[in-house]
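Summary of Year 1 activities. Much of the first year was spent building the evaluation harness for sequence design. The harness presents a backbone, in tokenized form, and records the residue chosen at every position. We chose the following record to illustrate the format because it has been used consistently in internal testing since the harness was completed.
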């Protein structure tokens, strides 16, 4: 999939139009790559996981989010498609304090489809930490109990605990 996405970036129309939007040719090529991957034994998951890297240099993050959402629409039961939407929203497609938290909703859908997916759990913890770090630590602690082999999640939980330790007021300051 990395080679496929690299080939797509070399297309004649480029990644954006003069108006700053994503061109239809690129969208059509990406839809074809995803549809072709869906017909293989591996499925389209890897392509979805590469999408945000492909658009990493894009200036208009909201446009990227909208494109990723459109590409993911036909695949509501693919955790990787939902994760791609969550990551695009997290990367700046939606304001952090937005009442409609697209990123959190999408990562929750990904985790509903793949409850033990550590990568999605880490993204969810990061999203929760933006609002309330205590929620992130509670979520990771619960995730680790359910998935004791999740070493990256355990490491992230330790980091959250350290951050909480250093950002919490000391008993002398209360």
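For this record, the design step produced the sequence shown next.
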């Amino acid at each position: 999939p990395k080679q496929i996405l690299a080939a797509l970036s070399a297309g004649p129309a480029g990644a954006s139009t003069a108006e700053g939007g994503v061109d239809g040719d690129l969208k059509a090529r990406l839809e074809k790559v995803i549809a072709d991957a869906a017909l293989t034994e591996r499925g389209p998951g890897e392509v979805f996981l590469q999408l945000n890297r492909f658009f990493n240099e894009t200036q208009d993050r909201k446009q990227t989010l909208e494109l990723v959402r459109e590409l993911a629409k036909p695949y509501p039961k693919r955790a990787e498609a939902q994760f791609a939407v969550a990551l695009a929203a997290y990367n700046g497609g939606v304001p952090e304090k937005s009442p409609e938290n697209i990123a959190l909703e999408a990562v929750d859908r990904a985790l509903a489809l793949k409850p033990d997916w550590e990568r999605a759990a880490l993204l969810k913890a990061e999203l929760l930490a933006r609002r309330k770090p205590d929620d992130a630590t509670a979520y990771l602690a619960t995730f680790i109990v359910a998935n004791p082999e999740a070493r990256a999640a355990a490491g992230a939980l330790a980091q959250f605990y350290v951050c909480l330790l250093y950002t919490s007021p000391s008993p002398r300051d209360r």
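The chain is about 65% helix and 0% strand. Quantitative recovery figures across the full test set are reported in Table 2.
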